[in-house]
Specification:
- Two copies of one chain form a homodimer.
- The first copy, chain A, has a six-stranded mixed beta sheet with strand order 2-1-3-8-7-6, sandwiched between helices.
- Chain A has 16 helices and 17 strands.
- Chain A folds into three domains: 171 residues, Molybdenum Cofactor Biosythetic Enzyme, Chain A, CATH 3.40.980; 78 residues, Alpha-Beta Plaits; 153 residues, Maf protein, CATH 3.90.950.
- By secondary structure, chain A is of the alpha/beta class.
- Chains A and B meet through α1, α2, β2, α8 and β10 of A and α1, α2, β2, α8 and β10 of B.
Chain lengths: 418, 418
């Protein structure tokens, strides 16, 4: 089965909204052995939508459409569906009930705009919306499947997870070709150096495919194996993984979608260790990422965002004279921050960051992007210098990633140097 | 001029990477009076790329292609360009020089893979890359313009900002139709209620268009006016803005791309106020957002991420017995946290958050999504309860947004209730 994704909304075209929906749907669909031939974004325009549907059915068997189903006047996807399938609107009593009970829970009254949301195209099977008022549609027509969902991410996600994917899996049965993918997540090594270290790729891959996916968090290596034998595909993938690990293993922090915060959470839990953070330049970005992981309260004790020097002195016991002498952005202060947060919190590990994120604040020997990351546990206390780039937000992200990688390497006893 | 955007990369199709590039390009291009007809994502496949180029030129005058220009084997866009334009590779000495000096700055040696990056299609004018090794291309052909850039966001961005947009603007001259857009950013009011409060839209808009763009941060209202008279378009836009503000003004925190963190930063700076944050459930997400703003050190004093109860007691002077009696997630504790961070830091305003982000930690009368946000300044000290949803990450984001909105309304003296 081949999928063609269509996202509808001017806000996506003119860059007011980042299209996270296609990434979510693309991942779900491809994990379920459906290949994606193309994904398109078009504006809120009836004729363009109709034209795109005409084109999509020449490329895909499964057309997934998101966006433009809301209650307001810029939402014209439902009209496009009516016209394309030459069908009419009917009231769906289940949807009306859903809307009433949702409004009831939120203490609001039903209005004309809500009632209108219960009108759905006659040709469609309704996909109920747990998180909003607009239902989705499942339409089977001329051997093609059309799925239509609202564009609000959490509404779309629940529909895909609970209705669309289970129904697709049931429809498809067992696949004839097996596509196995594995992603190895690296950080701290540039793409070209990684490629060099892997050496001869043909030898390494034995017919498999590799993709290098760089981002501010590192380079992901995606390996794809295709075979009519599932076992064979799995084994080749394992073999390639072993070879890659033998060459660049120290840079690999996780597999597939594992984030570094997930990985360090697991490591800390397994070892029953508790950490605390002292952030200056990253402003809480590190603790924010750490606490994105459910259950992080068992290993994250506290964080301090010591933006002012007073906070560094009062909360982290950093020596005021040291700040004057070496500057707040220095190896010595980073080390004292890490030491301070460890001792004040009673955690097993203290991590600290101090740096210049830009665009202002640089000095001659400390350009924008200079960051010191401190690490202290019961045995070692160190601080390492990093030199990132010009962009404030990217610098914040790279700094939090580097801090977590330092944590990972220290916990696992992997040397910090290349 | 009509633009057609093509993003190349399997990682975008299968959802390993969120496509932020099209949003960036879409925004830039549309701000410069170029309309975008469509945006597509296709995989790393030579034939599909060629087919897509054939299709794109039937829809657009300007084809912008990103991705697949890197140094590794999955990067096949250059090959596609060679084939499509029936051209050959030539060494570009400027690019070779750029690559050498970049590697030199980073203390690395030039290798075969780097030298290969200096080979560019003969038909192309080179777009130099300030942040990486792969150059971009500008190709004019049959009255169409093709722009090709790497997919790494910061490499693409510098090329668009410094080369592509200035060159396009110069080429286009003065527009004949003026399209003026304005976005009003609201938070704390659902889409359907907002629509109801705006009343009769035809009356309000006088021929202009409106779009409602909901997200976890609120609903944006985008108004679009088209006219052959620039002054007229501007005036109508202003008039509509005034009418909207008279109806739902209290929910509007900003215009166009202004984030709430930018707005509160400006308000604090203007009033010479300093704030400090005490976060439990959001784990530093609030201070992270506040410090995303350059210059925030002048109004953000410090933050405490009091994940453990010990941290609440030690760093924020919250009464230990109160935590036992009312629970860490309670109105009383939220208020003490805000009071505590204000007094400990000496800031003018203290903001606090405590809540249950999920998926675990709920109790009978405190379901997942329960959050208390505390606010204290020299005159008032309050805490307000919010009930968000089931998703941990969304709950964190909504909580930080709500906290900043409370800050904004308090500073401006706008009542918190609807």
């Amino acid at each position: 089965m081949k999928a063609y994704l269509i996202s509808i909304g001017d806000e996506l075209l003119i860059g007011q909204t980042i299209n996270t929906n296609v990434a979510y749907i693309g991942k779900l669909v491809s994990e379920n052995n459906i290949s994606i031939v193309k994904s398109s974004v078009i504006g809120d325009n009836l004729n363009i939508i109709l034209e795109e549907l005409d084109y999509a059915i020449t490329k895909g068997d499964l057309i997934i459409i998101t966006g433009g189903l809301g209650p307001t006047r810029d939402d014209i996807t439902r009209n496009a569906i009516l016209k394309y399938f030459n069908t009419e609107l009917v009231v769906n009593p289940d949807v009306l009930e859903d809307i009433k009970s949702m409004l009831n829970r939120r203490g609001r009254e039903i209005k004309k705009t809500h009632e209108d949301q219960a009108m759905v195209p006659k040709i469609a099977e309704v996909i109920r919306n747990e998180n909003g008022t607009a239902p989705g549609y499942w339409i089977e027509w001329n051997n093609k499947i059309f799925v239509v969902t609202p564009g609000v991410p959490y509404e779309m996600k629940a529909m895909m997870d609970n209705f669309v994917i289970p129904k697709l899996v049931e429809k498809m049965g067992k696949p004839s070709e097996f596509i196995k993918k594995l992603t190895l997540q690296t950080t701290g090594i540039p793409e070209s150096l990684l490629s060099d270290r892997l050496g001869n790729l043909d030898e390494l891959l034995q017919g498999a495919e590799i993709a290098f996916l760089p981002s501010e968090y590192g380079v992901r290596l995606r390996i794809t194996v295709k075979s009519d034998d599932e076992e064979k595909a799995k084994n080749l993938l394992l073999e390639i993984e072993q070879k890659i690990r033998s060459k660049v293993g120290r840079y690999i922090f996780g597999r597939d979608d594992e984030t570094l915060e997930l990985v360090i959470g697991r490591l800390l839990k397994e070892r029953d260790l508790r950490i605390a953070t002292a952030e200056s330049c990253t402003g809480g970005g590190l603790s924010d990422r750490i606490t994105n992981i459910s259950g992080s309260s068992s290993y994250f004790e506290r964080g301090v965002v010591s933006y002012s020097n007073a906070a560094k002195v009062e909360l982290l016991k950093v020596d005021e004279d040291l700040i004057k002498e070496k500057g707040a952005v220095s190896q010595e202060v980073a080390m004292q921050m890490a030491e301070g947060i460890k001792s004040v919190s009673g955690a097993d590990i203290g991590i600290s960051l101090t740096g210049i994120m830009g665009p202002y604040g640089a000095s001659t020997n400390k350009p924008v992007g200079t960051v010191y990351i401190g690490y202290c546990d019961d045995k070692v206390c160190t601080a390492k210098k990093f030199q990132f780039g010009e962009d404030r937000i990217l610098n914040k992200r790279r700094s939090t990633q580097a801090a977590m990688e330092i944590l990972r390497r220290n916990i696992l006893g992997i040397p910090l140097d290349d």
